[in-house]
Amino acid sequence: MSINQSGWRPEMAGGEAAPVKTFTGNKGLMLEEALIFEIGDSGRTGVDLLEAPKVASRLGGLERAATIGLPGLSEPEAVRHYTRLSRQNYAIDLGLFPLGSCTMKHNPRLNERMARLPGFADIHPLQPVDSVQGALALIHLVGEWLVKLTGMAAVAMSPKAGAHGELCGLLAIRSALEARGDARKVILVPESAHGTNPATAAFCGYAVENISATAAGRVDLEALKARLGPDVAAVMITNPNTCGLFEPDMKAISDAVHAAGALVYCDGANFNAIVGRVRPGDLGVDAMHINLHKTFSTPHGGGGPGSGPVVFSESLAPYAPLPFVEKQGDHYALVEEETAGEHHAGSFGRMVAFHGQMGMFVRAAAYMLSHGADGLKQVSEDAVLNANYILRSLESVLDAPFAASGPCMHEALFSDDNLPEGFSTLDIAKGLIDEGFHPMTVYFPLVIHGAMLVEPTETESKAALDQFIGALRSVGERAKAGDPALKSAPHLAPRRRLDETLAARKPILVWKEPAAAQAAE
Ligand SMILES: *Cc1c(COP(=O)(O)O)cnc(C)c1O
């Protein structure tokens, strides 16, 4: 496909064709928006409050002397401000979200409807358990599905995200090791692991050591075996891994780890690629978190809190956190510190104040029940099929490092290897913004130079995939043709290339009056 056939025209790049300079700064329907502090002022308000009665202050001279400094806006000004900002954003409800390792799939509206049922939405965690039996039954039901789907023995529903689940799993592992008087200090993490894995291990006070990857992007089993020893507490393995590949040696890894007296933590964030087809319990996993906001379609990325239940093997179950829901005859009980019996005396304690993200449990239950067991199997099959469609459609344009070794799982991985001198992954990502897509995950996983990781998920149609493939192909071909306009993309977004490093390292989080800001410089 030549550049012109792809629909891209030089004038789209801006610069060449004279841009229309507008009075407002708006570009047609792409509306400019100033900071809320710049459009508001302290003398305006959207509400009409009664004059406060004069009361004698009892603050002993600690009353605030200066104004709070909130921007004052009328109601329509406030509504328009946030609506304009929302139009500068990208969302799963606008288009395909190709982020790899993050699983941004459609959030079914049925889930939302169920989560708003008053019996779920309007209850309080401190209500007597007899008055919330339905809610406890639902938590129990989701837990049962997770235990069954993973082939594990027990589940902790309370962790509130994947990374929180990792913490939960490692705390249980540490408790189990301490219970046998074996304070091991090292956690092994393969190169292909998600970044949260080493961060969690370090947070728990463990020394983290890397295990290298093979040329095929998998854990190097021999390197792992060579490092195992009496100081190793656990290995943390992401499976399928962040190269979008299944670890075929998983059972051999688990056996070797167990033989060395250590435990196996599996990062199950990519469970959506294998749900209904593989049970991690059969592979010797001791603890694994599941991101309900990935595999089970609950919203995330600004749309809702995450939820990261953790499943445990038989041997680790006694160390799982409290509380949990237990079915006792027809009654659902909440097992807490006071009511935990002998069997749970080893529990490491609580992860959260209450019981987890109730609203997300309802959404996940709606997703599970509407799909059924056969539907969930189809979910993973379609997710893998879609990713392979992308991989095979684009491997002739972008370098696909592991494509020769066979199909991928739920995400397709590309590198910057065959881009011409002067062009990088960043240019491809920015070019995609002009095409109306959120960029894919870039420069991760770290094992691949200039990585581009694309996860389409099962919820995209073939038409949507074809449009995305066409866009990415076009951008890739522009890079290969040396199109200089790509170096300064995006041209059709409210902002161009921002200094992302500066924004991350020196974020400006407090607005100052322009005069004050100038004086501070
Ligand atoms: C998303 C993800 C995590 C972290 O999960 P959060 O819910 O974002 O904390 C961990 N590992 C992998 C492989 C992931 O994709």
Automatic annotation (TrEMBL):
Superkingdom of origin organism: Bacteria
GO CC list: cytosol; glycine cleavage complex
Key words of the record: Oxidoreductase, Pyridoxal phosphate
A Pfam match: GcvP2_C
E.C. number(s) listed in UniProt: 1.4.4.2
Stretches assigned to the Glycine dehydrogenase C-terminal domain: 380-478
SUPFAM superfamilies in alphabetical order: PLP-dependent transferases
Domain Aminotransferase class V span(s) in chain numbering: 181-301
GO molecular function: glycine binding; glycine dehydrogenase (decarboxylating) activity; pyridoxal phosphate binding
GO BP terms: glycine decarboxylation via glycine cleavage system
Chemical reaction(s) catalysed: N(6)-[(R)-lipoyl]-L-lysyl-[glycine-cleavage complex H protein] + glycine + H(+) = N(6)-[(R)-S(8)-aminomethyldihydrolipoyl]-L-lysyl-[glycine-cleavage complex H protein] + CO2
Protein's job: The glycine cleavage system catalyzes the degradation of glycine. The P protein binds the alpha-amino group of glycine through its pyridoxal phosphate cofactor; CO(2) is released and the remaining methylamine moiety is then transferred to the lipoamide cofactor of the H protein.
Alphabetized NCBIfam families for the sequence: PRK04366.1
Name of this protein: glycine dehydrogenase (aminomethyl-transferring)
Taxon lineage: Bacteria, Pseudomonadati, Pseudomonadota, Alphaproteobacteria, Sphingomonadales
